[in-house]
Write a structure and sequence with these properties.
The protein is α+β, with helices and mostly antiparallel strands and 334 residues long. Helix content is 55%, strand content 18%. The chain has 12 helices and 8 strands.
């Protein structure tokens, strides 16, 4: 297009001469179109390029974002009938003002939030409270949500471990509600749902662990359960703060077998320690005998010390001390 207008001043549509302004505009448009085609050709992926994974990742991201969207505001109009009912409710409230004030003003505590529904729709982007709250008695309903940290005990779960050992495990979960609107609008009963999810998560996680791993890595397993629960309950407006495994119960036969194994291990260690002690004692006696051979008077002193020890005890043992010199002649003859 640029070459046509450069060499011929006539318009290709009907042979009408183009003005300078039209020529400039058309030239500018042609340059932009050429640049756009060059950029498009440069960035167009060829066959076999990694375009499908990129599209799939974008689709997954959009799905994830759509799942994370909360039902938090009133969307759309309430309609003509809704406005009529709302006006009549406000009119009746104004007429019965001295009495209706007790039904319109509500108190929300410091640790609570109120989710208000007007004709079945949530009327504000966030929960109301704490303090005073005004509602219309005929059209508005509200649900109070406790934001304090709550806890519940996981009932004992009978679990078959990875090494085919049946065990019973229970625990406790500490959680709180961060988003009151999500806890009301996205799940029917947030507390019951969290409890059931905690039970199933505990069974699934411990079913992939061996008995020795459960007994030795309790903190790590509890942290993994807490992370899974926190991710799963995020859409419900719940924040799982802590998970603890309280007790791991084993069958009686397994307890006896483990006790016998531990007792055998302790006996083996005791024998090893006793053998090491005898070996060290024999070495010490050998060194003492060598010292006594170098000094004959040391044997006589040891003999007198032994007599002193025996005499200190209250017993009926009679000891006849014999001088060691009497045996010296017999030893020399040999």
């Amino acid at each position: 297009m640029f070459s046509i207008y450069q060499h011929s001043p006539c318009d290709v549509r009907g042979g009408v001469p183009c003005s300078g302004r039209e020529l400039t505009l058309v030239t500018h448009y042609s340059e932009q179109e050429t640049e756009r085609e060059r950029v498009t050709h440069r960035h167009t992926p060829c066959v076999g390029h990694k375009m499908e994974p990129t599209m799939e990742s974008q689709i997954r991201k959009q799905k994830r974002q759509s799942k994370e969207e909360l039902v938090d505001v009133m969307k759309g109009d309430i309609g003509f009938c809704g406005w009529v009912i709302l006006i009549l409710s406000a009119f009746l409230t104004a007429i019965m003002f001295p009495l209706s004030i007790w039904f319109c003003v509500k108190v929300v505590k410091e640790y609570e939030r109120a989710v208000v529904f007007r004709l079945g729709r949530i009327i504000s982007g966030k929960a109301r409270g704490p303090g005073l709250m005004f509602v219309l008695p005929c059209t508005d309903t509200f649900i109070k949500v406790d934001l304090r940290v709550l806890s519940f005990a996981i009932p004992p779960q009978e679990i078959l471990t990875k090494d085919s050992v049946t065990t019973t495990v229970d625990g406790v979960v500490y959680y709180k509600i961060d988003n009151a609107i999500s806890s009301v609008a996205n799940v029917s009963n947030v507390h019951l749902a969290t409890q059931q999810l905690a039970q199933t998560t505990l069974r699934n996680i411990l079913g992939t662990q061996s008995l020795s791993s459960i007994l030795s890595n309790r903190e790590e397993i509890a942290h993994n359960i807490q992370a899974i629960l926190d991710t799963a309950t995020h859409e419900w407006g719940v924040n799982v703060e802590r998970v603890e495994m309280r007790d791991v119960r084993l069958p009686v036969q397994m307890q006896r077998a483990m006790a016998a194994e531990a007792e055998a291990v302790r006996e083996a260690r005791a024998k090893v320690v006793a053998a090491e002690g005898e070996m060290n004692a024999s070495r010490a006696l050998k060194e003492a005998s060598m010292v006594m051979m170098e000094s004959p008077a040391a044997l006589q002193l040891r003999y007198l010390q032994t007599l002193n020890t025996i005499a200190a005890e209250n017993n009926s043992t009679i000891v006849f001390p014999l001088p060691v010199d009497l045996f010296q002649g017999l030893l020399n003859k040999k």
